[in-house]
Amino acid sequence: MPETSPTTTPSLLAPASEAVVRATAGVVAQHAEEITARFYPSMFRAHPELLRVFNQGNQATGEQSRALAASVVAYAVQLIDPDAPSFAHVLRRIAYKHVSLGIRPEQYTIVGRHLLGAVADVLGEAVTPEVAAAWNEVYWLFAMQLGAEEARLYVQAGVDPAHPLRPYRVVRRIDEAHDIISLVLEPADGAPLPAIDPGQYVSVFVDLPGGDRQPRQYTVSSTSSGTRLQITVNRVRGVDGAPDGRVSSFLHDGIEVGAVLDVSAPAGDFVVKDAEGPLLLASAGAGITTVLPIVEHIARTQPTRPVIVAHADRTARDHALRDTVVHVGGQIDDFTTYTWYESVDPDDTRSREGYMDLTDIPLPADVQVFTCGPLPFMRHVRSTLLARGVPADRIRYEVFGPDLWATQPPAEPVPA
Ligand SMILES: Cc1cc2nc3c(=O)[nH]c(=O)nc-3n(C[C@H](O)[C@H](O)[C@H](O)COP(=O)(O)OP(=O)(O)OC[C@H]3O[C@@H](n4cnc5c(N)ncnc54)[C@H](O)[C@@H]3O)c2cc1C
Ligand code: HEM
Predict the structure, then answer these.
(1) Which CATH class for the 15-157 domain?
(2) What is the per-residue DSSP string for 1-56?
(3) Which residue lies with its CA nearest to atom 1 of ligand 2?
């Protein structure tokens, strides 16, 4: 039996499969998006009920297809390469998303059948029985790890996967900024609010006019009352002929006080822990929804912890929650804000004009960064901070869509 070095972890794959995956990972990676683009239509044809669980906007743009392809390739690579970056955060992000959507273990069989079928369709004769068996093993290892994490998260949240949603009544609707509203939601089943960590999101399921049912994720932007949670929704306008956002438009146009929405348990690990050390919260546009709950949390539990809030938006009119963030931040001993607008009103002397530029703001040495906004914005924040010596592991990010962070090339410049 070959000896294993004490410093290397043996692969989870059987040795024969490992050799096949090593030999075929390149060709699978090359065709991964073609495979996942074929997988979804085939699965939806056989299981139209899943159209109500998958975000059809992400299907139309291809983002979910790309995210799935990237995750499977990254998973296979870390199985065969002991030096590959840790996969733990990717696994956790997917598991949280699945749990917020009520994904169940038995559904892995459906996805597996159609995904592996799509691999065979796209790669054709290259998929020998050995190749099929090796990728089947990769899929099921991934599925088992996700399933285990999801089981843990369901138990931790006290959620039965067969009933992942609770009804919440809209008790208040607030116009926050141009095209941005907040909805304050109260559990309609009489049970208390679940525990919500600052920065977590919920999945909200809506029944759209015409009969479609669709989920979307919204960050819990405030829990200040203790008995209600607030979501803050940016109305997505279609650009260049693309349609307006379906769910955000429906929440803006079709939801009034008294309406009842189906809402998941809180999910996500973009969460500030109660460690010490200063925080920089760098957001753009709707990313501000992650800033307020973190500022609320620090004001309530660690008011001596320094917090810097840096926000970029198109104009002051588009900047939601600004006054609330400043008001709540006033309870923090050392609280600083910076604001950038693409165009600044003449009488606004506090805001800077242009895109966010963090090159010259004073930063404490041990700052921990939480950034949320469009991907190009977050890449820019990250590269500026890395250049200023902030270690990569101190920079956390949240993507308001399928996580394509690792799949797109860096882009400049950086509109909010
Ligand atoms: C973890 C997380 C937290 C989030 N938190 C918030 C939050 O706090 N506040 C917030 O406002 N949002 C948040 N979001 C985003 C939110 O979930 C939705 O994605 C957003 O509201 C848009 O949904 P929609 O149904 O309105 O748009 P969709 O209908 O899903 O459309 C999305 C985009 O796809 C384009 N599109 C759709 N169909 C087509 C087509 N056929 N061809 C070309 N383009 C098309 C649309 O034009 C639009 O640009 C969050 C997302 C995640 C993942
Ligand atoms: C090994 C198997 C699976 C893998 C690798 C996988 C991977 C992923 C990834 C990468 C995402 C995007 C996460 C993000 O937001 O960044 C995702 C989302 C999602 N997954 Fe899975 N998944 C698997 C199994 C399943 C199963 C069994 C179901 C149930 C039918 C499912 C349903 C969903 C849904 C509904 C979403 C959200 C899609 C969206 O918002 O566009 N997945 N998954």
Answers:
(1) mainly alpha
(2) -PPPPTTSPPPSS-HHHHHHHHHHHHHHHHHHHHHHHHHHHHHHHH-GGGGGTS-H
(3) 143
